[in-house]
Description:
mainly alpha; 3-stranded mixed β-sheet; about 55% helix; globular
Amino acid sequence: MDMTTESGRKLYEQQFLQPINKVLKKANPNHKDVTVEWIDNATMKTRINKGTWEEGSVAYYDPIKDKLIYNYEKFEVGTSSHELVHMALRQYFNAQGQRMEINFRNRKKLFHCIGGNFERIFGFKHKGMRDTLSGT
């Protein structure tokens, strides 16, 4: 997928974001669909100068607007995964009325906790997630 093109960005939203919104709605009927705002380097630099964007970041999840903001000129698949995890965890814990706090110092424990609860929360195992979401 070439995110520098409008067709690449639309394909990302169809193949990744729409299925994720669908899964999150199953886990939380009050889930509000997440949208994407695509920005370029110039917009990112303007936001850095205004203090609304952190230097070195290429993506941001806005929890108030339930919006993922990606710099399409620096987009990588890992960027998407990282922000989607932020979004999904925040939405799940907020729906449960719990304050979301995660200690990233003990990553092995964190990933075990996420993996162990993933199927219970989302209704399918995290291994093979791509096939489950795409329906293949």
